[in-house]
């Protein structure tokens, strides 16, 4: 080996985005606007190599995601290999392709946990968001299959102004289905979510009501149901510690093999996007300019650089700074100390009373 | 079964057999040379005392045997060890790591 720069601590988690194909079209999807087509997807052999390198590097948990990862017929092979390498295996799925038979194959392969997305509690609004008729009944069936097996299940609800009032019923549904965890996660406004921000962003009053509903459920339901609550940071005074710090805990591999510090990092155009087909995960993690760009605190401008919280929030979110201010190295504007914080107030003050039409997430549907 | 359930005092608690919940495990992290608890959507590092206790959780032996094992290996009175073990089991049962 050549002399390497000081080693970055190894990543804890790998998000393996196996495909961008998905039967659903949720307008807050975390996938990028430019979706990878099937023809560009990594092969089974390439994914096995990624998983092997991840385990070698020190990744502890692999999250098989998409798109809909169950659209890949090789998913049980990937799970079996990952489990054999000691990785904790999590399937992040819409559930609409899940059957007794293909779930059995995954459980036998060593799958540890399922995170199942729901768009809402009632079929009509859920299927309006997901853009797929008949999805809700399939999701309910999927939840029951997982719980009947005894595998831990997390339900994930993405929250927006159209479903925020139904959080208490979402939590009841999670309890009734026998989920061990539930995520009440407000939309994050990147990519498709940013395109649809005016249609999705709740009001401050709605956010406060959502927070009360979660606190009430925690008191009511106790520790049997763990509730993860994620707020929209536009209403915060301090930025979130995005990904636990850039290039610090988390690595994402896209369907086409691009290696990213977060889902949205392809929006940053100032350096090349590393490619798993031409370098190893370890080399990319340690050395790729994209991973070094905002790692640690040396890149920070003021007021971040001198801030006592700089190793708590790691400067917030780089993709948000880029999306809202045009500069990925700027202080995250949701921080009250940001010189551009007024931009957030302007956005919130200009939300329309009537939501505009949704722009659905599908191939070729991104605005120019 | 008795007609009246006994109060869940230390003796009853020591007879219990604990195991990791499905989807949760203790695992040695070779790269960082430490033990980690792998659980849904999180991995965390137990402190050294918790690690010694959890390495004995196998879903077979009762809590009393875990305490006996530790009492034989560590220089502390059995009641002190028993208190630590029972407190850890109570805490990790509440956090959906262990179950009886």
UniProtKB/TrEMBL annotation, chain B:
GO terms for molecular function: quinone binding. Pfam families: PqqD. Transmembrane segments: none annotated. Pathway: Cofactor biosynthesis; pyrroloquinoline quinone biosynthesis. The keyword Cell membrane does not apply. InterPro entries: PQQD (IPR008792), PqqD_bac (IPR022479), PqqD_sf (IPR041881). Keywords: PQQ biosynthesis. One of its GO terms (biological process) is pyrroloquinoline quinone biosynthetic process. It comes from the Bacteria. Monomer. Interacts with PqqE. This is Pyrroloquinoline quinone biosynthesis peptide chaperone PqqD. It comes from Gluconacetobacter azotocaptans. The gene is pqqD.
